[in-house]
């Protein structure tokens, strides 16, 4: 009977000391040796909690009372922070956020790669000088509240739309355009889409700003191709928002959580807006992927460049290359660059971007890295440096196997998920690579996300 677990029950209340932050930014404590996740609680706080849900391996709880607050707890500056859920850490001092993000990476490597202490070459998180107004794109659902047009996000664990009029992590231009467009839709009485009834027209307002140019792109996502009073809408946008250089309509009539549909119609101005990162120029179409925080992206890519240690003689593979941004950052210092991605449009953009920068030594193919690599090896082409920036699920197992087979001098792994990163690094360590260092970068201040640049090198025997 000694080892029998004490059964935690929903609605139960008990005191808890918070030990650390979890991967989603929630406080983590232990009650009778069982894990309890508490959103909004901070490390070293003593709280009284009420259990909201009981799972097999953990429980979830909410704060009833904070008995001993953290010295690093602050008042969140955003008035709707607790309702919105878009940010998770505004109640924690920014310097402490950077330290805790480093700790989230540390925990992942202790758990999944069994690396800790001196065996984990983990650097301090690179933060932002001014961690506000950094997002260059906003996608807000449109709805109605008492006959007034609103645009925002659905609240935490609810289907209630929270109006976001002045988001503090968005670039001010995106806030201004969204607010003005809400007013235009209201004034012209344009039908707003109702998800429950599946009626109405306008579903989402998407705005994107070029940080370097100030150009704004506006996309109205509609449930039907027909947009009532379309010409009047365009005229009002031109009159009230001269900074909007590109207006598009995207049609998505499906019942789906995906924002964009397949068809995009050009309504006014340019089809793309211009953006620059360092010396590189990019054209951004409505659906093109681009990093959401251009200021930190430059820092992230510079860390990739440092890790790659290029001399001008290296052949580089840019796996999961997307529109080619990371590879193009490295291209001036490499002998040859080859990239691949499964999305044909991304490869078209990558080729166009390389041509635009005047890089003739960049080659891109559509397909999976784990299928294209063996083909190149057979042709006698062997890379010196591997750059991977996979989705949250981590590298495909076959790609890891292909990398292990190729044995490049260096692997530079860019990750947005510490757990899958640690698992993949563990595989590479077992295959004989050496972990040189881990460099966390804060791409999304006030959220629980942490990006990481990892350098691994081949151990020559």
TrEMBL record:
Family (UniProt): Belongs to the class I-like SAM-binding methyltransferase superfamily. RNA M5U methyltransferase family.
Alphabetical GO biological process terms: rRNA base methylation
Family matches, as Gene3D superfamilies: 2.40.50.1070, Nucleic acid-binding proteins, Vaccinia Virus protein VP39
Protein name: 23S rRNA (Uracil-5-)-methyltransferase RumA
Gene Ontology molecular function, alphabetical: 4 iron, 4 sulfur cluster binding; rRNA (uridine-C5-)-methyltransferase activity
Active site, UniProt feature: 416, 416 (nucleophile)
Keywords: 4Fe-4S, Iron, Iron-sulfur, Metal-binding, Methyltransferase, S-adenosyl-L-methionine, Transferase
Limits of the TRAM domain: 7-65
Organism: Anaerobacillus alkalilacustris
Pfam families to which the protein is assigned, alphabetical: TRAM (PF01938), tRNA_U5-meth_tr (PF05958)
Keyword Cell division annotated: no
Domain of life: Bacteria
Binding locations of S-adenosyl-L-methionine: 291, 320, 341, 389
């Amino acid at each position: 009977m000694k080892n029998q677990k004490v059964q935690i029950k929903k609605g139960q209340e008990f005191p808890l000391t918070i030990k650390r932050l979890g991967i989603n930014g929630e406080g983590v404590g232990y009650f009778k040796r069982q894990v309890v996740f508490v959103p909004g609680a901070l490390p070293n706080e003593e709280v009284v909690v009420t259990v909201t849900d009981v799972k097999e391996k953990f429980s979830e709880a909410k704060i009833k009372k904070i008995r001993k607050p953290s010295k690093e707890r602050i008042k969140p500056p955003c008035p709707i922070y607790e309702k919105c859920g878009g940010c998770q850490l505004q109640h924690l001092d920014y310097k402490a956020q950077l330290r805790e993000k480093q700790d989230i990476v540390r925990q992942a490597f202790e758990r999944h790669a069994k690396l800790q202490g001196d065996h984990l070459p983990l650097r301090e998180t690179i933060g932002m000088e001014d961690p506000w107004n950094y997002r260059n794109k906003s996608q807000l659902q449109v709805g109605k509240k008492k006959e007034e047009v609103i645009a925002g996000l659905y609240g935490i664990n609810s289907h209630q739309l929270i109006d976001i009029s002045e988001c503090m992590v968005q670039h001010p231009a995106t806030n201004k355009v969204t607010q003005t467009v809400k007013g235009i839709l209201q004034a012209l009485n344009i039908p707003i889409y109702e998800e429950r009834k599946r009626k109405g027209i306008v579903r989402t307002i998407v705005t994107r700003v070029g940080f370097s140019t100030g150009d704004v792109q506006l996309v109205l996502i509609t449930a039907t191709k027909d947009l009532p009073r379309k010409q009047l809408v365009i005229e009002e946008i031109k009159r009230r928002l001269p900074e909007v250089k590109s207006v598009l309509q995207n049609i998505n009539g499906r019942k789906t959580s995906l924002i964009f549909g397949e068809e995009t119609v050009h309504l006014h101005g340019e089809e793309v807006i211009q953006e620059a990162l360092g010396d590189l120029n990019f054209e951004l179409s409505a659906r093109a992927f681009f990093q959401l925080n251009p200021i930190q992206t430059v820092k992230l890519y510079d860390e990739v460049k440092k890790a790659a240690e290029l001399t001008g003689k290296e052949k580089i593979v840019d796996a999961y290359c997307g529109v080619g941004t990371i590879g193009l950052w490295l291209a001036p210092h490499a002998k040859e660059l080859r990239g691949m991605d499964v999305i044909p449009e991304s490869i078209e953009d990558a080729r166009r971007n390389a041509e635009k920068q005047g890089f003739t030594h960049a080659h891109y193919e559509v397909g999976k890295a784990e299928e294209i690599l063996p083909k190149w090896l057979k042709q006698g082409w062997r890379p010196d440096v591997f750059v991977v920036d996979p989705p949250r699920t981590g590298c495909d197992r076959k790609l890891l196997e292909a990398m292990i087979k190729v044995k490049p001098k260096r692997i530079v792994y860019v990750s947005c998920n510490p757990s899958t990163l640690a698992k993949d690094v563990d595989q590479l360590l077992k295959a004989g690579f050496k972990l040189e260092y881990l460099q966390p970068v804060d791409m999304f201040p006030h959220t629980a996300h942490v990006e990481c640049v990892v350098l691994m090198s081949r151990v020559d025997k």
